[in-house]
Each structure stands twice: as structure tokens, then as C-alpha cells.
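Entry — protein

Goal — C-alpha cells:
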Amino acid sequence: MSSHHATLHYIHDPLCGWCYAAQPLVSAAMRQLGARVDLILHAGGLFAEPRTLDHELGEHIAHSDERIAQLSGQFFGKPYLEGLLADPTTVLFSLPPITAILAARSIDASLAYPMLVAIQAAHYQRGLRVVDPDILVEMAEELAIDGDTFRQSYARVRSTDLLEHIEASRRLLNEVHGHGFPTLVLEVHGKRQVLPHHLDYGKPEAFVERLAARLPAVH
């Protein structure tokens, strides 16, 4: 790693609405500063056990989504709003999509973040059930990952790396005194600082400027 490089730790959950709100910030940062910043994903497991979308939870999520849309400008599709979110049989379970992200990463590290973005779009825009491994295979194939290779990686991650990854993500969240998902942590020369990304919802360029100002100078 060069002296002017840094790491952006993204503590998230693929089924966290506020992580969906932060997605344009992270995407803009990596698009413009990716040559100077490594992105590392840390999934914390918001729904660590399967949770049926009962009325109370559905109302809570719907109100949060309205706020997210207002602040971030992120799009919530009709198949999600009138399908997935309105269906009391919908199950929220973070472990399958987290497994998919880790499986993609094990095949090619550069595919981890695109898989997260694809899962968020599938859930919040297309209303797909991303707890279904078969849906996750289809999404991997949309990213040009061979389906059989992905299935093998998915099975291996689920049986070996998954829970350890989630536990490590939660430890990191505690260490940096983060306030849940999402938490964005910039690490430079071994020193970590939590970024106040919540100030920049809907303003990706402001977030990029905030991040760039904290990066080591390029010589």
C-alpha cells in the first residue's frame, strides 16, 4: 500500500434502508477516489434470524423508507412498495444476502460491492426476495459470475466464514463507537475516524469532498 492510500470501512447490512440511502455516497466516493481508497465491506447482520414482516414492522419500515426517499432521493420501486413490503409472508433475513456478498468476494474481490448494490436494487426497486438463494444465483449471473462457481462459493461461505465475518463486523462497530448501520470509517496510517455521512444524504459530491479532505496528500 502506498503512503497516500487509505481504507474506507463500510459497516452495513444489505437489508438496511439507511444503507440504501448511503449507497450513492459510497458509489460516488469509489468512482472518484477509488484509486486512492480501498473499500472493505463489513456486514453486521441486522436481521440475524428470519423475521416475518408483521404489521408493526411493516409500518416502521414504510415510515423509514419515506424519510430515506426524502433525504437521499433513492428510488423505491412499486414491486417493493406494493409487493414485498405489503406482503405479510415476506421474510427479512440478512444472512443469505450477506453470504452472497462474501461468496462474490471470494471469487473476485472487486465484485463484493457490485453484489451489494445489486442486492439493494433487487430488494428496494425490483421487489425480489433476496433471502432466496436461487434469486441470489440469478443476481450473480447478472454480474457475469458463473452460476455453479457461485453456488459452490456460497455453500462454502455459509458453512465456514459467515458467522465469523458478522461477529468481526460487530466488534469493529463497537471499537469505533459506531451508531448502527451504516457506519463509514476512514482508516489512514492505522488511525480510524468515523465519517459523519448522515450530513451528506442526497449530496454525494459533498461526501466525496469530505472524504477527499481527509486523505493523505498525493506527492
